[in-house]
Each structure stands twice: as structure tokens, then as C-alpha cells.
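Look over this one:
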Amino acid sequence: MPDLPDVVPMVSYEDCAAAAEWLAAAFGFEELERFGREGDVTHVTMRSGSGYVFLGKPGASYVNPKRLREQCESAARMYEVPWVVDGVYVQVDDLDAHRERARRAGATILSEERGERPVLRAEDPEGHRWMFGLR
């Protein structure tokens, strides 16, 4: 296990292995370790720069945000805004290059802000929201 910072976000996925591969391709994360049981990936530790995120698969009853919005009107309304409702903030060196990489990998670009503090908001295939800003 790497030496971790004091706070590490944890994000749950229905398909933890696919999420790790997608996050590496779309957002440039590096996979550090992977655990599973009975042939199923249940945890992946990912790194971006000096930051970390844990991906986990909590079990068969878990429903990702995208499917939850399809099943629940209240959840759908909550995600009508282009903001990061629950998510992770990540700093990158080049926001334009990051946006294009994410777009090519199939990320949904939710919104962008330019100016004094530029940010990019994007959604992954399972509906989790990520915000990126300049390092």
C-alpha cells in the first residue's frame, strides 16, 4: 500500500474493474493495486499526481448514480444541474488536453468555466461526477 494522504475519497462502482480501466484511459489515473474475491474485482487504488482514490464494489444491491436516476425521479431531479453533486476534485496540468482526453474516452462533459479559476465538470459511465481544475 502506498503512503496515503490523510483523506482519500472512496467511490463505489457496479463494475470496479471496468471503472478503473476507464478512469485510467479518460482521466489519466494510474492503477496501483487491485483486490478481489471469487474472480470479481472489489477494490482498486488509483493515483493522480499526489492524490489517491479508492474504487470499491459494495455488493449486488448497489445501484450506481446513472441507474439510480433512471429508477428514481427525485434522484433524476438532483442531477439535472451540471454541478458535481457528490464527487471528487482533481488537479491537472493542462485542462484543455484533459477535456479532450476525457471526451475521446466517452466522458459526459457537464460544464466548463474559464477565467480566474477554470474548471471542467465531467461524468463517468456509471454517473459519478468529477471536477478538474488547474494544478
Observations:
- The radius of gyration is 15 Å.
